Amino acid sequence: MDVTFRFPSPRAIDLIGFAWSPLFEAVLSLPAVVQPKRTPMHLPWARRCRDLPADLLDEINVLAASLDCFIPGVFEVGLAGERPAFADELERFRAVDHELVAYELSLAFGGRGCGPFHGSGPGLVHDPEFRHEVTTAAAAISAEQETLVRTALDDPATIRERFATLLQRYWDEAFSEEWERLRPRIEAEVTDGARALVTGGIPGLVAELLPEGRWDEDAAAIVVDKTFERTCDVADRGGMLFVPTVYGWPKVLIELDDPWQPAVIFPLRDLRQPEVPLASDHEVADGLRALGDETRLQITRMVAEQPRSTKELAQLLALSDSAVSRHLKILANAGVVSGERDGYFVLYSLRPERIGQLGGALRRTLGLTHAVPGDVPSLPVSLARRGEGA
Asked: For residue 158, which of 66, 72, 94 has the smallest C-alpha distance?
């Protein structure tokens, strides 16, 4: 089954926008705290969050356990704004219509698949059949889940404020600095997407940022493989958004429901693509293979002291001339040593500059180019200690 976003033409780039949201990203991170084994890419974050105050962790476990399968659109309030700030988004969340809060949170607590229902939309919260379905589905999960659904349906202002309070604490005590770490990566993804859109149209954008989707030339549509089938006329809806995310991994999330703008929320490419070999990897591997033998390491040390011939090295190592020649050939091919004829003999010397190049290439491969001596920094996450404010 597919979700299809139809366009007037492949060049209708004015119908594509990009967005990101600190509040929405914080909400997407909560399931990683609740169920870290299901989000192994985010285990470092989950481990850090173990140090959060126990009462905050308890509240996260209660309210966020249902967000793994369905993220209510009410948390997308910041996607429509320019350069959203968390405080502004939270204020907008607190102003969301009660009916919409009741509808979307009850779906989350009851399970998105707890229907089928006759129709959709916030008005269903007054439908006895809908209320019975979501309540029954929640009760099958736990009594606590049933209580949450009933609160969402009967007193949405209370459940909305409970979420707002949780998100404010989570932001202050855990996520604000994490967002500062993530934002440059997300903004870089948006920049690459915008460049692909301008140069290659919508097909170029899909090829660059959305490997889970494809461009259907005949239908002039973006097609994303999902477990449900829907079609969205992007022009009729006033455009759509591409929203890169870190904590949405591994899912590609789709927003199609009113009043929210249609959107594709997709993981950053570096979370989905295999590691790409660096140009320096081959250089490092050749050098390490040459030096990764005890005899060749001894030869390298000896010729670093002074130039030596094959015969001298053979006597010092108690090896045959042919065995030493084979080792020297490997070291010379890797550029570690060089030979220069001196009369009858060829004298081999170390190439110190090659050792320096090899060390630099190894540091680049390991991402240590800019490392400086000193303590190893902790993960870029700031958490308040128990009993302290943010």
From this structure: 94
